[in-house]
Specification:
Elements lengths: L1 H11 L4 E4 L15 H29 L3 E6 L12 H21 L3 E8 L11 H10 L10 H14 L9 H12 L10 E4 L10
Parallel strand pairs: 1-2, 2-3, 3-4
Helix pairs in contact: 2-3, 4-5
């Protein structure tokens, strides 16, 4: 991480913004269980893979004597309990609280905020064909094995959209726009907050 950031500093003269989206989803087996190794990889990637980059970036911003902005991508799964994604959901709940903890830790020089999308199927590497079929079966949605992966993804995305208040799928472009807003000076007096981008998912309404 330090080597990558050193390269950024050498090329661009410094670091001002970090948007962190990297995460893994490890699918459970047919009984709904995840292995110990799946748990370890998920927590190591999704939690430590968040803490380490933020720590390295904030050290650079502090040394620069400038103001910075960090945006972490959490998930609606952080607050919605359900079957089939236990390690991922727990890791995203940790990221949701990390947003608050890191905002306190790195103030006043670095703002830390988050974006919490509902499931993004379009263009997601976390939705290979086998997971899409598994999800369609989980929700008892009809499908045909002869359909292309994109057709199956579209079917799943429309199902997710149907559960929202706005009846629209959550897209990568919508997440990018939200991250831009949270990272930009438009929200210069906001830190420790998470913006939901889920087309209105009642289950994710905070209680």
């Amino acid at each position: 991480m330090r080597k990558a950031l050193d390269g950024v500093v050498m090329r661009y003269g410094g670091v001002d913004i970090l948007v962190l989206v990297a995460a893994v989803f490890m699918a459970a087996d047919t009984t709904g269980r995840n292995t110990d190794e799946q748990w370890r990889k998920t927590l190591d990637t999704n939690i430590m893979g968040t803490v380490i980059p933020v720590d390295e970036v904030t050290q650079i911003i502090t040394a620069q004597g400038t103001q910075g902005s960090v945006v972490l991508i959490s998930s609606a799964n952080a607050v919605v309990a359900k079957k089939g994604s236990l390690p991922y959901d727990v890791s995203k709940a940790a990221v949701a609280h990390l947003i608050r903890e890191l905002a306190v830790t790195y103030a006043p020089h670095v703002r830390v905020n988050g974006v919490a999308p509902a499931s993004v199927v379009e263009g997601s590497l976390m939705f290979p064909r086998d997971r899409v079929i598994s999800s369609l079966a989980k929700y008892s949605l009809p499908y045909d094995e002869s359909e292309t992966t994109e057709e199956l993804r579209s079917r799943l995305a429309q199902f997710y959209a149907s559960r929202t208040l706005l009846k629209q799928p959550v897209t990568p472009a919508a997440i990018a726009e939200a991250a831009y807003i949270m990272a930009s000076p438009r929200t210069r007096l906001t830190t420790g907050q998470t913006l939901a981008v889920d087309a209105g998912l009642p289950e994710a309404f905070l209680r």
